[in-house]
Amino acid sequence: MFRKLDTGDEELRFLSRLTQVKGRRTFLTWSGVTIAAVAVGCKADDGLQPSGRSPRGGATEPVDLGTGDFLVLNFAYALEQLEAAFYTQVIASPFSGITDEESSLLDDVRKHELIHREFFKAALGSSAIPALEVDFTDVDFGSRQSVLETARTFEDLGVSAYNGAGKYLENLDYLLVAGKIVSVEARHAAAIRDLLAPKTAAFAGDDVVDEQGLDVVNTPADVFAAADPFITTEIDGSTLPTT
């Protein structure tokens, strides 16, 4: 059964589905919300292409994230570009010994990240930053451990990023959307952690969940500093909140 959720903007619609969870892949397939492809004009096979490789077209100035809500949305858009590019590469060159279950799960995550990326691109319109160049030279895509540890880093970082940046959004529609997306990112993080340490409590380890049962929160500036080594395009992060 499908239930349509409306943020208040008729162009931003989300799909959610209640299903019986049987295994990690089923859990991810319809966990949380996904943005309807028609709402952002992306086709089902859009995910086969990386998020672009032309940073600034020869410009000499760093990419400006903007101000206000645009600053926060562009910050999230940059992170979603990074994640989408990473999982696209993971699926394009699977690590040695990858199982069907792992491949299906990682492809589900890829599709979610591509949807998130396209949502922010559409929501920002002409205020969106350009497609970013990324650098994954430190990732051994042939190694299961290297791929999954990098995925865990990105997913944990993404959850902490939304948790830390949400309070700076003034538009409540965007805040609602961010809350939906972070719930999906948290499911990604739990699933990746379970692949690394199955049948343990690592899916919600005390390194990411505090004593009150709340996820870790990082400031936008700290998140940007952690993600920056993977992004080749020069971005001006000086205006990102540090508290």
CATH class: Mainly Alpha
Query: SSE order in H/E notation?
Result: EEHEHEHHHHHE
Q: Give the overall pLDDT as a whole number.
A: 80
Indicate the proportion of strand residues: 5-15%
CATH-assigned homologous superfamily: Ferritin, core subunit, four-helix bundle
Summarize the structure.
With about 240 residues, this protein is mainly alpha-helical. It has helices spanning about 25-30, 35-40, 70-90, 100-125, 145-165, 170-195, 220-225, and strands spanning about 1-5, 15, 35, 65, 235.
SSE layout and pairing:
Layout: E1 2-6, E2 13-17, H1 24-29, E3 33-35, H2 37-40, E4 63-64, H3 68-92, H4 100-124, H5 144-165, H6 172-196, H7 220-227, E5 235-236
Parallel strand pairs: 4-5
Antiparallel strand pairs: 1-2, 2-3
Task: Give an account of the 3D structure.
The protein contains seven helices and five strands. By secondary structure, the chain is mainly α. The strands form two sheets. It has a three-stranded antiparallel β-sheet with strand order 1-2-3. The termini are far apart. It has one domain: Ferritin, core subunit, four-helix bundle (Ferritin, Up-down Bundle). 47% of the residues lie in helices and 7% in strands. It has helices spanning 24-29, 37-40, 68-92, 100-124, 144-165, 172-196, 220-227, and strands at residues 2-6, 13-17, 33-35, 63-64, 235-236.
